[in-house]
Amino acid sequence: MNLENDKTEYIVAFVSEFAKKYNLSAKEAFNYLDRFKAVDFLERLCMRFHFSMTVPQALRVVYNSKTYKKLINPRTGLYFQSPLYVYDFLKNEVLTGKLS
Q1: Phi/psi of residue 47, each to 5°?
Q2: Lowest mean pLDDT among 1-5, 7-11, 32-36, 59-63
Q3: How far apart, in whole angstroms, are the C-alpha atoms of residue 26 and residue 82?
Q4: Which of 7, 10, 37, 89 has the least C-beta neighbours within 10 A?
């Protein structure tokens, strides 16, 4: 498989898991995640880790992070930021164990 196909599989898996978790259709889940830039965020995450994680591992990292909780909370305003900015928060959280 090539990099683009792998990235697409990650994004589809992420959207599917999000839809299941929140009882949404795949389209509703994608629209929500796209609106709050989570799709861009995941794409950057895939590129940075360059697939050194399995899909379940990557999903666990994202879903269990404090960064993700802030990203999906409209009150934080984090979803207004660029995917690279949000990724830097996640990367720092993963490396240090805490959100900066």
Answers
A1: -70, -40
A2: 1-5
A3: 24
A4: 7
- pTM of the shown model: 0.53
As a 3-state breakdown, the chain gives helix, strand, coil percent values, each rounded to 5, of: 75, 0, 25
Exposure on the CB side of residue 8, measured as CA atoms within 13 A: 5
**Whole-angstrom distance, CA of residue 11 vs CA of residue 5:** 10
**Cα 34 to Cα 79: distance, rounded to the nearest angstrom:** 10
Q: How far apart are CA 68 and CA 66, in angstroms?
A: 5
Residue 75 DSSP label: G
How many angstroms from the chain centroid is the CA of residue 42? 4
